């Protein structure tokens, strides 16, 4: 399988949603991404946890074959995030962010890690994302994500990073915040001007759009009437998208990018059906492909040419 290197948060999340709550459960941007991408590609994770990080959480990643050589355990507490969601599940209200061991984290990549062809800079301090990217040796594809916490505290560092990135993932609120644009489409235009050739704007239950060159491609979400926990949907989406793209070895073909959007959507839909990472720890590729095909087939709209012809045939 082809390889992806991911740097991002590995966390203990406490989350409240309209369906219930979870306390100090496995979370973090790099965690969700790795689990999701592991169904398509080999994943090497770079991050840090404290001595309090439960062994069983590491095992959940190992069971999916995620390479944890780059996950350091240091003295101190693991990154913690808590948030809640109201009826609008597409936007989390952050209650607390404790960077803990991430405050001092300075990763040094091994030679093998530097040569991995695809890099995902998952949501974490943009300066840390840049440090990791600077160590890579000629990556073929670089993608990144961020969130409000960093948009508010380090917007200049994000803009600088984006000039070196091929694909940028963002949710619509964060993209508007970062660019000052009044809607997701305009935000995508501004972001593309800053560097990335592909911009993906996610809109929760309302789907996602992708800007490639001058074109926009718009997708619904996979229809789920009930969800339990939207945490990590964005990172799981990025994992399906990049995992699929990495597995093809072709990174700039529109047909592959469209399939990547559908795999991202599919993986995110599994994730939100249960709390924390429960639903993406033990999927089967057949199950993923079945939902992917159902989703992709549902997007086909038959051409209407014959109807147009028969209308013209009616005498005045
Ligand atoms: P998502 O719902 O895809 O935006 O990602 C949620 C995940 O991001 C949670 O598991 C959190 O642990 C993690 N997270 C929340 N805030 C931050 C932050 N400021 N930096 C890095 N990771 C974060």
Commentary on this structure:
The structure is a single chain. The chain has a single domain, classed as UDP-N-acetylmuramoyl-L-alanine:D-glutamate ligase. The longest helix is centred in the last third of the chain and has 18 residues, at 254-271. Helices cover 39% and strands 24% of the residues. It has twelve helices and 13 strands. It starts with a strand and ends with a helix. It is globular. With 316 residues, it is an alpha/beta fold.
Characteristics:
316 residues, UDP-N-acetylmuramoyl-L-alanine:D-glutamate ligase, 4-stranded mixed β-sheet, binds adenosine monophosphate
What is the CATH class? Alpha Beta
- How many helices? 12
The helical percent reads 25-40%
Approximate shape: globular
Quaternary organisation of the protein chains: single chain
CATH-defined topology? UDP-N-acetylmuramoyl-L-alanine:D-glutamate ligase
Note the topology.
Layout (H helix, E strand, L loop, with lengths): L2 E5 L3 E7 L2 E8 L1 H9 L4 E9 L4 H9 L3 E8 L4 E6 L8 E6 L12 H4 L3 E4 L4 H10 L5 E4 L3 H6 L1 H8 L4 E5 H8 L4 H11 L3 E5 L5 E5 L2 E5 L13 H16 L5 H18 L13 H14 L6 H9 L3
Parallel strand pairs: 1-4, 1-8, 2-6, 4-5, 8-9, 9-10, 10-11
Antiparallel strand pairs: 2-3, 6-7, 11-12, 12-13
Helix pairs in contact: 1-9, 7-8, 9-10, 10-11
